[in-house]
Every structure is written in structure tokens, then in C-alpha cells.
Write a structure and sequence with these properties.
One of its GO terms (biological process) is DNA repair. Keywords: Hydrolase, Magnesium, Manganese, Metal-binding. Its cofactor is Mg(2+); Mn(2+). GO terms for molecular function: double-stranded DNA 3'-5' DNA exonuclease activity; metal ion binding. The structure is a single chain. The chain has 7 helices and 14 strands. With 263 residues, the chain is of the alpha+beta class. The chain has one domain: Deoxyribonuclease I, Chain A, CATH 3.60.10. The protein has a 6-stranded mixed beta sheet with strand order 3-4-2-1-14-13. Strand 7, helix 3 and strand 8 form a beta-alpha-beta unit. The chain is globular.
């Protein structure tokens, strides 16, 4: 199973890019973030024509998450993280595809920091950690994938010294990510490429993509039940160079098919 995450930065405005990538990469499961579309404006028909069933949680103007599956509709299990019934931001959706529970998330940016937006980010991270621990307690095949808006280490940012006070790189956020992973999750891209500078996001400004001035903020975490099934992990960085592309590139992992033996 090829499972990917892609912050599309506007699903309707970037639909040609998304459809082109789906046809090229042919992932079985895709987590999308930053739909920037209300529920009724999600391009379900176009995606169905491309061969993908979908569940989604839209939001006007910003946020929004979706889960796609090739040839089937994901079986929805949750939308929204528990822990704050007053939180109306569309940032989490979850479903089952081919026996794997997939949580698609769009963690808050948090800037400017410090401030209310940063406080919200930390609260959301705490809710994620609590819920993620519950998922692991069930000992099921599970993946958490999406835009985490955090660079875990200095290796994940092109000039660490310039980002020390940013909400994506402050110690509180990196500590929260480390605590999440320490529950028993595997950061697939880093696990398979432990010493490489690999980025998933390049700003539109100052020729960031051309200079490879990037950040690694999109992550795929697998639980222990899938840890030994990860065969590959990479970034389709060339997609960032397409016309009218998102500022993120798709990130993917390849899981062994049921019945496959050890690598």
C-alpha cells in the first residue's frame, strides 16, 4: 500500500496539480490538508472520476482535511480531535482503508509566537498526544499523516538559526513532537533517511525552491503494528516545481502488502 500526505494549499485552485500527481504516483491512500473550501465545494466528483473515493471536512477560506482511497470510499471513524468540543477548526479526519486506520491531520501553524495562536497550537498538540496514545493502546495498524507544522530537528530546516523563535521550531513544539513519537510511533521518512536533509515545504518567496531553502513539516507516523511493514519513504519534490503548485510536495510511504514477508 502506498500512502501519501499532501498539503494542497487550496484543493480547487490546485486541482489540476492534484489530479496530475494522482495519475502519476497512483497512491492507494492520500491525506490532504488545507483544502480552503467549504464542505459543499469539495471536488468529490472530479476525484471520483480519477478513481478515488473520499471523506472530507471542509471549512470556508482555510483549513480543511480529506482522506482519499483508490477504488473505494474510506470508512469514516472520526472527524475532529477529542478534548475540546468548542474547537470548530477542520483539522482532523480519520478512516479505515484496507484494514489500516489512517488519521489525517493539519496541526495549527501557531504564529506569531508567543501569543493566542501559539497557545492554541500547544493545546491542539496535547489533544493529539492524548488521542494518539489511545490509538496505540488498541494495538491496531494505524498511521498518523499530515502537515504537523513542526521541524523536529535542525536537520529538518535549511537555516536553523533563523527559525529559533518561529512557532514551527520553538522548543515547546519540538518537545511535543518528540513526546508524541516517543509513545511508540515511527517517523518513517526520518527512520529510512536518518542523515539526509529532506524537505517537504518551500516558501513561494525569495526563490526558496530554487535555492532548496526548505522545511520538513509534513510527516507520516506509523504505529508499532506497521513499523516492520514500511518498505520505502520519500518526497515527490518535483511536484513543487510544477506550474501553480502548492508550496508543499507530496510525501509518501510504501507499506508491505498483507502476507509479504520481512524485507
Amino acid at each position: 500500500m502506498k500512502l501519501a500526505t499532501f498539503n494542497v494549499n487550496g484543493v480547487n485552485g490546485r486541482l489540476p496539480v492534484l489530479l496530475r500527481w494522482l495519475e502519476e504516483a497512483k497512491p492507494e491512500v492520500v491525506c490532504l490538508q488545507e483544502l480552503k473550501a467549504p464542505q459543499e465545494k469539495f471536488p468529490a466528483a472530479a476525484l471520483e472520476k480519477a478513481g478515488y473515493g473520499a471523506i472530507w471536512q471542509g471549512q470556508k477560506s482555510w483549513n480543511g482535511v480529506a482522506l482519499l482511497a483508490r477504488g473505494v470510499a474510506p470508512q469514516e471513524t472520526r472527524r475532529g480531535l477529542p478534548g475540546d468540543p468548542e474547537d470548530e477548526q477542520s483539522r482532523y479526519i480519520e478512516g479505515v482503508v484496507a484494514g489500516v486506520l489512517v488519521g489525517c491531520l493539519y496541526l495549527p501553524n501557531g504564529n506569531p509566537a508567543p501569543g493566542p495562536k501559539f497557545d492554541y497550537k500547544l493545546r491542539w498538540f496535547d489533544r493529539l498526544k492524548n488521542y494518539a496514545a489511545d490509538l496505540l493502546a488498541h494495538d491496531i495498524p494505524v498511521v498518523l499523516a499530515g502537515d504537523f507544522n513542526v521541524m523536529p530537528t535542525d536537520l529538518d530546516v535549511y537555516k536553523p538559526e533563523r527559525w529559533r523563535d518561529d512557532a514551527l521550531f520553538r522548543p515547546e513544539v519540538r518537545d511535543a513532537y518528540a513526546e508524541l513519537v516517543a509513545q511508540g510511533w515511527t517517523d518513517c521518512l526520518r527512520a529510512l533517511h536518518p542523515d539526509e536533509r529532506i524537505y517537504t515545504f518551500w516558501d513561494y518567496f525569495r526563490n526558496a525552491f530554487g535555492r532548496d531553502a526548505g522545511l520538513r513539516i509534513d510527516h507520516l507516523l506509523v504505529g508499532p503494528a506497521l513499523q516492520d511493514q514500511v518498505r520505502a519513504a520519500d518526497v515527490d519534490r518535483h511536484v513543487r516545481g510544477w506550474e501553480k503548485a502548492s508550496d508543499h510536495a507530496p510525501v509518501w510511504i510504501q507499506l508491505a502488502e498483507p502476507g509479504d514477508g520481512p524485507e
